[in-house]
Amino acid sequence: MTIDWAKERILIFAPHPDDETLGCGGLMSKAKAAGAEVFVQFITVGDTADFSAAGLSTAEERFREIKEVADFYRWDDWNIAFPGDEYHLKLDRLPRFELANAIERHSPLAIAELRPSVVITPHWTSYNQDHRATAEAVHTALRPSDNRMRHHPRLVLAYEEAADQWRYEATTSPNLLVELTEEHLDDKITAMRLYGTQIHGHPHTRSELTLRSLAALRGMQSGVAFAEGYHTLRWLA
C-alpha cells in the first residue's frame, strides 16, 4: 500500500524545534518534493541549559534556527503555540484542556482550521515530559466523533526518535515504514545541522551517525536502503 504524498496536507506537531526533523525529516523532504503541503506546529520553545561552551541555548537562537529550517524545507507555514520559559519543559504542568484546545481549535494551525489529511505526533512513550504531554493532547484533540461535526484526518501517525528507545514501554516496532532515498536522508541531516544548538557528535541521540543508522535499520526491516518508522494510530482507507 502506498501513499500519494502529492495529494496530502500534512500537519506535524513538534514539542520543541528539531523534533519535527528528528522524527519526520526524511518524510518532509519526500512529501515536499512530491508536492505536498507541510505545516509544523511547534508547541513551545525557551532558553535551554545544554553542554555547549555557553551552557545555554537561547530562545532567540532557536527562533533563528527554525526560520533557516523552514526556508530549507519550504514549509507552507509554522507556528509556536506556547513560547517562553513559563511553558518550555513544563508542558506537563499545563492543563490538558488548554493544550488540547490549542491543538484542536485555538492555534493558527489548529486541526479545525487547517483541516489536514495527515497528522503526525510525537510518540507517547518518550521519556521527555513535553513530548508525552503533546502526544496525549493530540490524542485528545483527535478523539473519535461524528466527522460531520469535527474534522477527522484520514491518517494519524506517531513518529519515533532514537532517544525514545530508552523507555521500557518502547518495545513495539513501527508498523509503517516510509522509504527514503539518499537525497531525502541527506536533507534530514542538512536540516539537523541547521539546528546548530541541538545537533551533537556521536554517540549522542542527535548525532548524524545516529540518524543515518536508524534510517538504515528501518530500511533493512523493509528491504530498502533507508526508511523512517512511524506508528499508525488511524488510517481511513
UniProtKB/TrEMBL annotation:
GO terms for molecular function: hydrolase activity, acting on carbon-nitrogen (but not peptide) bonds, in linear amides. This is N-acetylglucosaminyl deacetylase, LmbE family. Keywords: Zinc. It holds the Pfam family PIG-L. GO terms for biological process: glycoside metabolic process. Transmembrane segments: none annotated. The keyword Zinc applies. It comes from the Bacteria.
